[in-house]
Design a protein that fits this description.
Active site: 214
CATH class of the largest domain: Alpha Beta
Protein name: Aldehyde dehydrogenase
Strand content: 15-25%
Distance between the termini: 52 Å
Bound molecules: nicotinamide-adenine-dinucleotide
Number of helices: 14
Organism: Streptomyces melanogenes
Domain Aldehyde dehydrogenase: 11-432
Family: Belongs to the aldehyde dehydrogenase family.
Length: 436
């Protein structure tokens, strides 16, 4: 049988049959899969470098850092700790059961579906898959059709390196994903936008399948008047314009007082130039917008404020300059949706109270960032706002800490993963009591 022509129902049945044999449960099988995946990334990394250049104009250094290196680190961290994470955990028993022993153990769930987006099309497919395999599951992975070159590379390489009866790649767009979602899975892990997140959750309801939704939204940055603005600008520009702003935890907009905003504007312009030179279009380090639809959507946001730097694009090559907009009205189009592109609006507020109110008036973000020297301000932001993660002084970096859970809250998602949190997500923690 040619797996390429397999129907979703047959794929799931084939993987479920493998799971039922118990083959995926021993820790040796799991670690072998992770080692093979690591070998794939090191031996065939060049294929991904090429596909990610084609899909998103990513530079080889960026691919190494944010796609291959990131994933290899997650594998190594998991290999180092897996046996310890899986250890049954004893629980004290109450007096009326004296002599009995009680513990919890992690059971794999069965067959897991991972649906990935296009912006980090390798990392965001492989990292959940690492967790699902480490927890002893069979996995169907569905790459994004909007990053077609990377989808093709993953579909070609994964069956070559991993147990093909326990890991299946299904390529395709809406019809293929819809067909997959009609099947019964034991967990669905979806990364992407909230509209499709709702479709995924509605499909999961039919089979009472638990879901993890890794969504997005507008991640604000509060810049305090005491912050060192050259450092702020350098770190903000690096976090915002990575992958041309197409990062789920990218700083979406800046909240600061009018005086700090005025000083931050030229600092941001200098930071962009330091990163990409005076003509970012000619920089090999600067990425491209994924497709024309997103290019047009982003171009329409450019007149939401006064252009500090950037502001122009080239539709034919999907180049959109790293752009900073000042004097942005909170009701303007750029503030009404997640930007997901290289446009950084600056919105002014009077003080910290107004900033906290501004944040809390809106959907709970995937990340909140703050640059401040004040411990009291840090504590207030941590205590008085809710977000998937909180980054103090450095955007994006929290998700590179494998010992921190990565996920959203409210509109930015539900559930989390990375490191041992992936084991929690892709396992059932079973309660066991043995009478004395
Ligand atoms: P996308 O368009 O690639 O969609 C994601 C997946 O959903 C794809 O595999 C696609 O085939 C599938 N899909 C699309 N429409 C569908 C439908 N009608 N039914 C079933 N499946 C469907 O990616 P996207 O949603 O444009 O990604 C961008 C969004 O994802 C942003 O909001 C971003 O913030 C968010 N995101 C979140 C994270 C995170 O880790 N929390 C990471 C990356 C992106």
């Amino acid at each position: 049988m040619n797996p390429i022509q397999e129907q979703p129902a047959d794929t799931v049945a084939r993987l479920r049959a493998t799971f039922r044999t118990g083959r995926t449960k021993p820790v040796e099988w799991r670690t072998t899969q992770l080692r093979r995946l690591r070998a794939m990334l090191t031996e065939r990394g060049a294929d991904l470098v090429e596909s990610l250049r084609a899909d998103l104009g990513k530079s080889p250094a960026e691919v190494q850092r944010t796609e291959i290196g990131f994933t290899v680190r997650e594998i190594d961290h998991t290999l180092d700790h897996l046996a310890r994470w899986l250890r049954p955990e004893p629980a004290p028993v109450p007096e009326h059961l004296a002599g009995a022993t009680a513990w919890t153990q992690y059971d794999p769930l069965g067959v897991v579906l991972v649906i990935a987006p296009w912006n980090y099309p390798a990392q965001l497919l492989l990292t959940p898959m690492i967790g699902a395999l480490a927890a002893g599951n069979a996995v169907v992975v569905k790459p994004s059709e909007l990053a077609p070159a990377t989808s093709a590379v993953l579909a070609r390489l994964l069956p070559e390196y991993l147990d093909p009866d326990a890991v299946a790649v299904v390529e395709g767009g809406i019809p293929e994903t819809t067909a997959l979602l009609a099947e019964r899975f034991d967990h669905i892990f979806y990364t992407g936008n909230g509209t499709v997140g709702r479709i995924v959750m509605a499909a999961a309801v039919q089979h009472l399948t638990p879901v993890t939704l890794e969504l997005g939204g507008k991640s604000p940055v509060f810049v305090d008047r005491d912050a060192d603005l050259d450092t702020v600008a350098a770190r903000l520009a690096a976090g915002k314009f990575l992958n041309a702003g197409q990062t789920c935890v990218a700083p979406d907009y800046v909240l600061t007082d009018p005086e700090t905003a005025r000083a931050l504007e030229p600092a941001l312009a200098r930071a962009v130039e330091a990163l990409y030179g005076s003509d970012p279009q000619a920089s090999a380090e600067y990425g491209r917008i994924v497709n024309e639809r997103h290019f047009d959507r982003l171009s329409a946001l450019l007149d939401s404020g006064r252009v500090v730097t950037g502001g122009r694009g080239d539709r034919a090559t999907r180049y959109l300059a790293p752009t900073v907009l000042a004097d942005v009205d909170p009701k303007s189009p750029v503030m009404r949706e997640e930007i997901f592109g290289p446009i950084l609006p600056i919105v002014t507020v009077a003080d910290l109270d107004e900033a906290i109110g501004f944040i809390n008036d809106r959907d709970k973000p995937l990340a909140l960032y703050a640059f401040t020297e004040s411990t009291a301000t840090r504590e207030r932001l941590a205590a008085e706002t809710s977000s998937g993660g909180l980054g103090l002084g450095l955007p994006l970096a929290h998700l590179t800490v494998s010992d921190l859970p990565f996920g959203g809250v409210g509109e930015s998602g539900m559930g989390n993963y990375h490191g041992r949190y992936s084991i929690e997500t892709f396992s059932h923690r079973k309660a066991v009591l043995a009478a004395g």
